[in-house]
From TrEMBL:
Ligand binding (S-adenosyl-L-methionine): N12, L14, G39, E60, D84, N106
Subcellular location(s) of the protein: Cytoplasm
UniProt-recorded Gene Ontology molecular function terms: 16S rRNA (adenine(1518)-N(6)/adenine(1519)-N(6))-dimethyltransferase activity; RNA binding
Main location: cytoplasm
Reaction(s) this enzyme catalyzes, per UniProt: adenosine(1518)/adenosine(1519) in 16S rRNA + 4 S-adenosyl-L-methionine = N(6)-dimethyladenosine(1518)/N(6)-dimethyladenosine(1519) in 16S rRNA + 4 S-adenosyl-L-homocysteine + 4 H(+)
Domain Ribosomal RNA adenine methylase transferase N-terminal span(s) in chain numbering: 19-191
Documented EC number(s): 2.1.1.182
PANTHER family: DIMETHYLADENOSINE TRANSFERASE, DIMETHYLADENOSINE TRANSFERASE-RELATED
UniProt-listed InterPro entries: KsgA/Erm, rRNA_Ade_diMease-like_C, rRNA_Ade_Mease_Trfase_CS, rRNA_Ade_methylase_Trfase_N, rRNA_adenine_dimethylase, SAM-dependent_MTases_sf
Functional description taken from the UniProt entry: Specifically dimethylates two adjacent adenosines (A1518 and A1519) in the loop of a conserved hairpin near the 3'-end of 16S rRNA in the 30S particle. May play a critical role in biogenesis of 30S subunits.
Protein name stated in the entry: Ribosomal RNA small subunit methyltransferase A
Protein backbone atom coordinates (compact mmCIF):
# COMPACT_ATOMS: atom_id res chain seq x y z
CA UNK A 1 0.00 0.00 0.00
CA UNK A 2 1.42 3.39 -1.03
CA UNK A 3 2.21 5.74 1.84
CA UNK A 4 0.81 9.25 1.39
CA UNK A 5 3.36 11.84 2.60
CA UNK A 6 2.01 13.85 5.53
CA UNK A 7 2.53 17.61 5.59
CA UNK A 8 2.27 17.80 9.38
CA UNK A 9 5.34 15.56 9.64
CA UNK A 10 7.18 17.50 6.94
CA UNK A 11 7.54 14.36 4.82
CA UNK A 12 9.46 14.63 1.54
CA UNK A 13 10.91 11.24 0.63
CA UNK A 14 14.26 11.05 -1.13
CA UNK A 15 13.89 8.82 -4.20
CA UNK A 16 16.87 9.68 -6.45
CA UNK A 17 19.21 6.66 -6.29
CA UNK A 18 22.28 8.59 -7.45
CA UNK A 19 21.81 11.13 -4.64
CA UNK A 20 21.24 8.33 -2.13
CA UNK A 21 24.52 6.66 -3.10
CA UNK A 22 26.33 10.03 -2.88
CA UNK A 23 25.04 10.39 0.70
CA UNK A 24 26.08 6.86 1.63
CA UNK A 25 29.58 7.51 0.26
CA UNK A 26 29.77 10.70 2.34
CA UNK A 27 28.67 8.86 5.50
CA UNK A 28 30.95 5.87 4.81
CA UNK A 29 29.20 3.46 7.25
CA UNK A 30 31.39 0.76 8.81
CA UNK A 31 30.06 -2.63 10.02
CA UNK A 32 30.51 -2.01 13.74
CA UNK A 33 29.33 1.62 13.83
CA UNK A 34 26.68 2.55 16.38
CA UNK A 35 24.41 4.58 14.11
CA UNK A 36 20.95 6.12 14.36
CA UNK A 37 18.90 7.42 11.47
CA UNK A 38 16.35 10.14 12.20
CA UNK A 39 13.17 9.95 10.10
CA UNK A 40 13.84 6.87 7.96
CA UNK A 41 10.57 7.33 6.08
CA UNK A 42 10.18 4.70 3.37
CA UNK A 43 13.64 3.29 4.24
CA UNK A 44 15.43 4.29 1.02
CA UNK A 45 18.57 5.26 2.94
CA UNK A 46 17.95 2.70 5.70
CA UNK A 47 18.29 -0.18 3.24
CA UNK A 48 21.55 1.16 1.82
CA UNK A 49 23.02 1.77 5.29
CA UNK A 50 22.21 -1.81 6.27
CA UNK A 51 24.25 -3.10 3.34
CA UNK A 52 27.30 -2.01 5.37
CA UNK A 53 26.12 -1.96 9.00
CA UNK A 54 25.54 -4.97 11.21
CA UNK A 55 22.80 -3.07 13.03
CA UNK A 56 21.01 0.26 12.76
CA UNK A 57 18.74 2.29 15.05
CA UNK A 58 16.01 4.49 13.60
CA UNK A 59 13.72 7.09 15.20
CA UNK A 60 10.33 7.50 13.49
CA UNK A 61 7.20 9.39 14.58
CA UNK A 62 4.72 8.21 11.92
CA UNK A 63 2.93 5.08 13.21
CA UNK A 64 2.23 3.78 9.70
CA UNK A 65 5.91 4.01 8.79
CA UNK A 66 6.90 2.40 12.10
CA UNK A 67 4.66 -0.57 11.28
CA UNK A 68 6.13 -0.79 7.78
CA UNK A 69 9.70 -0.72 9.11
CA UNK A 70 9.00 -3.43 11.68
CA UNK A 71 7.39 -5.59 9.03
CA UNK A 72 10.17 -5.20 6.46
CA UNK A 73 13.28 -5.47 8.67
CA UNK A 74 14.33 -8.08 11.21
CA UNK A 75 14.77 -6.69 14.75
CA UNK A 76 18.26 -8.20 14.83
CA UNK A 77 19.24 -5.74 12.08
CA UNK A 78 16.99 -2.74 12.79
CA UNK A 79 15.81 -1.30 16.11
CA UNK A 80 12.84 0.99 15.57
CA UNK A 81 12.29 3.68 18.20
CA UNK A 82 8.78 5.06 17.81
CA UNK A 83 8.56 8.67 18.93
CA UNK A 84 9.44 12.30 18.49
CA UNK A 85 13.12 12.91 17.74
CA UNK A 86 12.89 16.23 19.60
CA UNK A 87 12.18 14.32 22.81
CA UNK A 88 14.24 11.20 22.17
CA UNK A 89 17.19 10.34 24.43
CA UNK A 90 19.87 9.69 21.81
CA UNK A 91 22.47 8.98 24.49
CA UNK A 92 20.52 5.84 25.42
CA UNK A 93 21.71 4.21 22.17
CA UNK A 94 25.43 4.45 22.97
CA UNK A 95 26.33 1.01 24.39
CA UNK A 96 29.55 1.88 26.23
CA UNK A 97 31.68 4.82 27.24
CA UNK A 98 34.37 3.92 24.70
CA UNK A 99 31.92 3.97 21.76
CA UNK A 100 30.52 6.99 19.98
CA UNK A 101 27.26 7.52 18.13
CA UNK A 102 26.94 8.39 14.46
CA UNK A 103 23.77 10.29 13.55
CA UNK A 104 22.26 10.59 10.06
CA UNK A 105 18.96 11.64 8.56
CA UNK A 106 16.80 13.61 6.17
CA UNK A 107 15.49 16.07 8.75
CA UNK A 108 11.99 17.52 8.42
CA UNK A 109 12.37 21.23 7.63
CA UNK A 110 9.81 22.23 10.26
CA UNK A 111 11.90 20.88 13.19
CA UNK A 112 15.45 21.09 11.85
CA UNK A 113 16.78 23.94 14.04
CA UNK A 114 15.31 22.76 17.37
CA UNK A 115 16.48 19.21 16.61
CA UNK A 116 20.03 20.40 15.92
CA UNK A 117 20.03 22.20 19.27
CA UNK A 118 18.61 19.10 20.99
CA UNK A 119 21.52 17.06 19.61
CA UNK A 120 24.14 19.49 20.94
CA UNK A 121 23.33 18.10 24.39
CA UNK A 122 25.02 14.80 23.47
CA UNK A 123 27.81 16.22 21.28
CA UNK A 124 30.59 14.71 23.48
CA UNK A 125 29.14 11.24 22.77
CA UNK A 126 28.87 11.75 19.00
CA UNK A 127 31.44 10.84 16.36
CA UNK A 128 29.76 12.72 13.52
CA UNK A 129 26.42 13.78 12.05
CA UNK A 130 25.34 13.81 8.40
CA UNK A 131 22.04 15.51 7.62
CA UNK A 132 19.97 16.58 4.68
CA UNK A 133 18.48 19.97 5.44
CA UNK A 134 17.02 22.92 3.63
CA UNK A 135 19.96 24.51 1.75
CA UNK A 136 19.23 27.88 3.30
CA UNK A 137 19.55 26.38 6.79
CA UNK A 138 22.89 24.72 5.98
CA UNK A 139 24.19 28.01 4.56
CA UNK A 140 23.28 29.70 7.85
CA UNK A 141 24.99 26.92 9.82
CA UNK A 142 28.33 27.28 8.01
CA UNK A 143 28.22 31.07 7.41
CA UNK A 144 31.29 33.10 8.34
CA UNK A 145 31.30 36.45 10.18
CA UNK A 146 30.50 39.29 7.79
CA UNK A 147 28.01 37.18 5.83
CA UNK A 148 24.33 38.16 5.71
CA UNK A 149 23.45 34.58 6.66
CA UNK A 150 25.70 34.57 9.76
CA UNK A 151 23.56 34.60 12.90
CA UNK A 152 22.41 32.78 16.03
CA UNK A 153 22.42 29.35 14.38
CA UNK A 154 25.93 29.92 12.98
CA UNK A 155 27.43 30.94 16.32
CA UNK A 156 25.76 28.33 18.50
CA UNK A 157 26.58 25.41 16.19
CA UNK A 158 30.09 26.57 15.22
CA UNK A 159 30.94 26.77 18.92
CA UNK A 160 30.23 23.02 19.13
CA UNK A 161 30.99 21.56 15.67
CA UNK A 162 33.24 21.67 12.64
CA UNK A 163 30.77 21.82 9.73
CA UNK A 164 30.90 21.50 5.95
CA UNK A 165 28.25 21.82 3.26
CA UNK A 166 29.05 18.74 1.14
CA UNK A 167 26.67 19.08 -1.80
CA UNK A 168 23.29 20.43 -2.90
CA UNK A 169 20.26 18.24 -3.65
CA UNK A 170 17.57 19.55 -6.06
CA UNK A 171 13.80 19.30 -5.39
CA UNK A 172 13.47 16.74 -8.20
CA UNK A 173 15.25 14.16 -6.03
CA UNK A 174 12.21 13.96 -3.73
CA UNK A 175 8.61 12.78 -3.73
CA UNK A 176 6.80 15.10 -3.31
CA UNK A 177 9.33 17.71 -4.48
CA UNK A 178 9.88 20.46 -1.89
CA UNK A 179 9.80 24.09 -3.05
CA UNK A 180 13.45 24.66 -2.11
CA UNK A 181 16.89 23.14 -2.63
CA UNK A 182 18.32 20.86 0.05
CA UNK A 183 21.93 20.28 1.07
CA UNK A 184 24.00 17.67 2.87
CA UNK A 185 25.96 18.89 5.89
CA UNK A 186 28.68 17.08 7.84
CA UNK A 187 28.98 18.00 11.53
CA UNK A 188 31.94 16.81 13.62
CA UNK A 189 31.86 17.72 17.33
CA UNK A 190 34.78 19.84 18.55
CA UNK A 191 36.60 17.85 21.23
CA UNK A 192 37.35 20.90 23.36
CA UNK A 193 35.06 23.82 22.51
CA UNK A 194 35.94 27.27 23.84
CA UNK A 195 35.17 27.33 27.57
CA UNK A 196 31.73 28.83 27.97
CA UNK A 197 28.32 28.20 29.53
CA UNK A 198 25.92 27.23 26.73
CA UNK A 199 22.98 28.97 28.37
CA UNK A 200 24.85 32.26 28.72
CA UNK A 201 26.12 32.08 25.13
CA UNK A 202 22.55 31.49 23.97
CA UNK A 203 21.36 34.55 25.92
CA UNK A 204 24.03 36.79 24.44
CA UNK A 205 23.63 35.58 20.87
CA UNK A 206 19.83 35.75 20.95
CA UNK A 207 19.96 39.32 22.27
CA UNK A 208 22.64 40.36 19.78
CA UNK A 209 20.79 39.10 16.71
CA UNK A 210 17.35 40.33 17.76
CA UNK A 211 18.01 43.63 15.94
CA UNK A 212 20.42 42.80 13.14
CA UNK A 213 20.42 46.27 11.55
CA UNK A 214 21.66 47.97 14.71
CA UNK A 215 25.26 48.06 15.93
CA UNK A 216 26.18 45.55 18.63
CA UNK A 217 26.33 48.27 21.32
CA UNK A 218 22.63 49.02 20.85
CA UNK A 219 21.64 45.38 20.40
CA UNK A 220 23.00 44.33 23.80
CA UNK A 221 22.16 47.53 25.67
CA UNK A 222 21.02 46.62 29.18
CA UNK A 223 23.13 43.46 29.08
CA UNK A 224 26.56 45.04 28.53
CA UNK A 225 28.00 48.54 28.68
CA UNK A 226 30.20 49.91 25.92
CA UNK A 227 33.22 49.36 28.19
CA UNK A 228 32.19 45.72 28.68
CA UNK A 229 32.24 45.27 24.90
CA UNK A 230 35.64 46.90 24.58
CA UNK A 231 37.06 44.79 27.43
CA UNK A 232 35.83 41.67 25.60
CA UNK A 233 37.57 42.81 22.42
CA UNK A 234 34.34 43.70 20.63
CA UNK A 235 34.13 46.88 18.54
CA UNK A 236 30.89 48.54 19.77
CA UNK A 237 30.26 49.94 16.29
CA UNK A 238 30.15 46.55 14.57
CA UNK A 239 26.89 44.96 13.54
CA UNK A 240 26.29 41.58 15.17
CA UNK A 241 26.92 39.65 11.94
CA UNK A 242 30.50 40.97 11.93
CA UNK A 243 31.31 39.71 15.46
CA UNK A 244 33.25 36.39 15.41
CA UNK A 245 32.44 33.40 17.60
CA UNK A 246 35.41 33.96 19.93
CA UNK A 247 34.14 37.43 20.85
CA UNK A 248 30.62 36.17 21.55
CA UNK A 249 32.17 33.57 23.86
CA UNK A 250 34.11 36.35 25.56
CA UNK A 251 30.89 38.28 26.15
CA UNK A 252 29.12 35.20 27.48
CA UNK A 253 31.94 34.67 29.96
CA UNK A 254 31.46 38.25 31.20
CA UNK A 255 27.72 37.85 31.69
CA UNK A 256 26.83 38.13 35.35
CA UNK A 257 30.29 39.31 36.43
Amino acid sequence: MKHIPRKRFGQNFLTDQAVLYDIIRAIDPQPDDTMVEIGPGLAAMTSLLLESLKHLHVVELDRDLVARLRKNFAPQRLTVHEGDALKFDFASIVPAADRKLRVVGNLPYNISSPLLFHLTEIAPQVQDQHFMLQKEVVERMVAEPGSKTYGRLSVMLQWRYHMDLLFVVPPTAFDPPPKVDSAIVRMIPIAQPLACDAGKLEQVVTKAFSQRRKVIRNCVAGMFTENDLIDAGVDPQLRPEAVPLEQFVGLANRLGL
